[in-house]
Design brief:
Layout: E1 4-5, E2 15-18, E3 24-29, E4 37-41, E5 44-49, H1 60-71, E6 80-84, H2 90-98, E7 103-108, H3 111-120, E8 129-133, H4 136-140, E9 151-156, H5 171-180, E10 181-193, H6 198-210, E11 213-218, H7 220-223, E12 229-236, H8 245-250, E13 257-259, H9 261-268
Parallel strand pairs: 6-7, 6-9, 7-8, 9-10
Antiparallel strand pairs: 1-2, 2-3, 3-4, 4-5, 10-12, 11-12, 11-13
Helix pairs in contact: 1-2, 5-6
């Protein structure tokens, strides 16, 4: 497929590709960190990648998911990870760099996006990262028996443009996720929401309906419903191994807090459990939130 090129007067050309769904994907260099790149789809920053240092996680919510991955098993130990939503493979690169020998599966609906990313930002040589093409839920439900009950981490970061599709936000979907996790495995969900946090509250209620343990890692300003942003939700059938999470989250460039127990119950406060009959897309952010060329704040 031929590449489009940035034709703005005086602008350096950015590799671009028209995707299967008609949206335009572009990879731009991050001017705040030379040598790193941002994948932008339909004007929305989707991924930040440092090919030379995959342990560097720029976007706030991706660092928080990275902390969860760090805590799921002893440092350096290989894990089995499933990533629903590929983007530019930021977290699969991170897992390979921090846990060499890990077995990873990435599910991405758009083959043209995968091809584009691999051409412009090649994956680490020798990494065991398998890409499965198709809808995240449909592929998940057809995973081979060998992956069921054996996965350490499932990352749910599925977006169509700037919104998460409804069919990957329901209790039935999270039950399918639970079926591939080992008893101590965790699911990490990127939840994008805005004022009122109604969607995030419902997602927390839905995860709590399916899993015994749930925790949120979130910017305190978002808890006050003051801005659009990302809530990271973690869930497991077993107690989450998050003794160090409050310190890790608080030490980030944008500090976050861990919400569990009674504070989590108060956050949910009667929010409805999403089902296949009632689930909705995540809310659409205002276009002004994403200013391409400035430091972005959402990923894969």
């Amino acid at each position: 497929m031929a590449k489009d090129r940035d034709s703005r007067a005086g602008a350096a050309p950015h590799p671009s590709r028209r995707l299967a769904d008609g949206l335009l994907a572009t990879i731009e260099e991050d001017r705040f960190r030379p040598g790193t790149h941002v994948l932008i789809v339909d004007g929305t920053p989707q991924s930040h990648v440092d090919v030379d240092d995959p342990t560097y996680l720029s976007f706030e919510y991706v660092r928080r998911i990275g902390h969860g991955i760090d805590l799921v098993a002893p440092s350096g130990q290989p894990i089995t990870a499933v990533h629903l939503g590929g983007g530019a493979f930021t977290l699969p690169r991170y897992v390979e760099a921090t846990r060499p020998g890990s077995r990873q599966q990435v599910v991405e609906i758009d083959s043209s996006l995968v091809e584009f990313v691999r051409e412009e930002l090649p994956l680490p040589k020798g990494a065991s990262i398998r890409v499965r093409h198709g809808d995240a839920r449909a592929v998940l439900e057809k995973f081979p028996p060998g992956l069921r009950g054996s996965t350490d981490v499932v990352v749910v970061d599925v977006f169509a443009g700037a919104r998460t599709p409804a069919h990957v936000t329901s209790a039935e979907f999270y039950e399918a996720v639970a079926s591939i996790l080992k008893p101590s495995g965790i699911v990490a969900v990127n939840v994008a929401d805005g004022a009122g946090l109604a969607f995030a509250r419902s997602q927390a209620a839905t995860l709590a309906h399916v899993f015994a343990e749930v925790a949120l890692v979130v910017d305190p300003q978002m808890l006050k419903a003051r801005r659009f942003g990302n809530v990271v939700a973690f869930a497991s059938a077993s107690p989450l191994p998050f003794e160090r999470m409050p310190r890790l989250a608080a030490s980030d460039p944008v500090p976050a807090k861990v919400v569990t127990g009674s504070e989590l119950r108060n956050f949910i406060a009667g929010a409805p459990v999403a089902t296949d009959q009632t689930s909705t897309k995540s809310p659409a952010p205002a276009r002004s939130i994403f200013q391409v060329g400035r430091k972005a704040s959402s990923d894969d």
